[in-house]
Amino acid sequence: MAESAASETSLDFKDPAKRTNLTFAVVPVGSLEVISHQRKPSDTHVKRVIESVKRIGFVTPLVVVEREDAKGYFVIDGQHRLLVARELGLRRVPVVIAPRRAARRMLTLNVEKEPNIRERAAVALSIYRELVDTSPTLAEDDPEVTDATQHAHYVTLGLAYAQFGRLAGSAYEPILRRCDGYLDGPLAECLPVREDRAGKVVEAHRLVRAITDQLKELGAWHEFVGAQIIAYANPLRRARKQHSFDDVFDKMIAKLREAEQDPKKVLRTSA
């Protein structure tokens, strides 16, 4: 690093809950970079934090991990505070340096605001892809993967969003929870399976959109018609056990294709 954190206040300590080794330090703003998994910052929140800092000072440390090249730090909690520090022209800021192994798990629990399904999926996919690159032989159901991504279907949805853009992820999540678990195999082999699963989610969504458009033309559209179509095609209904992803989505897509030929079927069937 251009300036060493050791040149200012530095204190090693253990967190009181998990006894994790941490370090408090004051480091140059130029040594900090937001980790790629972070969600898009809020301009409104930045403005609020600026006003807070002007009134009471910069009293809340950022949480960071040291870069692997030891040339700085990645911010895993505090990207808004970093933006504020840059906006106000601060040269140094207080940080808590956490071990790198804790970074991925901390990102999934960083809830300045409750993330929506798309944001959770984007973070999970970013972490998953990093793990595929760095640890391709690691099993997908290894705790390092499951702890960092939280749910397997977040990765599938992340890939589906990447393929399609706009997607009603929350409408498919209840179905995915019951058929899209972690796989027993190395990440490098599981990624293509996830991509195939994402493709089936996207195909289902394309069909839902097509049926929705037809119902609009028939004057039968309403605010919840998309959810009604998905409920109509959902093969699980009240079943509670875990199901095969391919079996569920193959049946769902087949039923949606039938409905595409006769969209009034959706209206005649109770969700």
Descriptive tags:
271 residues; alpha/beta; Conserved hypothetical protein from pyrococcus furiosus pfu- 392566-001, ParB domain; 6-stranded mixed beta sheet; disordered N terminus
Number of domains: 2
Strand order of the main beta sheet, please?
1-2-6-4-5-3
Strand fraction equals 5-15%
What is the alpha-carbon Rg in Å? 23 Å
Helix content: 40-55%
Number of helices: 11
The 3D shape can be described as: elongated
- Uncertain spans, ≥5 residues at pLDDT below 50? 1-7
Number of DSSP-assigned strands: 6
Q: Order of SSEs, N→C? A: EEEHEEHEHHHHHHHHH
User: What structural class is derived from the secondary structure elements?
Assistant: alpha/beta
The average pLDDT is 85
Quick structural overview:
The protein is built from eleven helices and six strands. It has 271 residues and is an alpha/beta fold.
How would you describe this protein?
- The radius of gyration is 23 Å and the shape is elongated.
- With 271 residues, it is an alpha/beta fold.
- It has helices spanning 43-56, 79-87, 103-109, 117-134, 143-149, 152-164, 169-177, 187-217, 225-233, 245-261, 264-268, and strands at 10-14, 21-28, 32-34, 62-66, 73-77, 92-97.
- The termini are far apart.
- Helices cover 51% and strands 12% of the residues.
- It has 11 helices and 6 strands.
- The model is unreliable at 1-7 (pLDDT under 50).
- It has 2 domains: 5-100, Alpha-Beta Complex (Conserved hypothetical protein from pyrococcus furiosus pfu- 392566-001, ParB domain), CATH 3.90.1530.10; 115-268, no CATH class.
- A hairpin with a 6-residue loop joins strand 1 (10-14) and strand 2 (21-28).
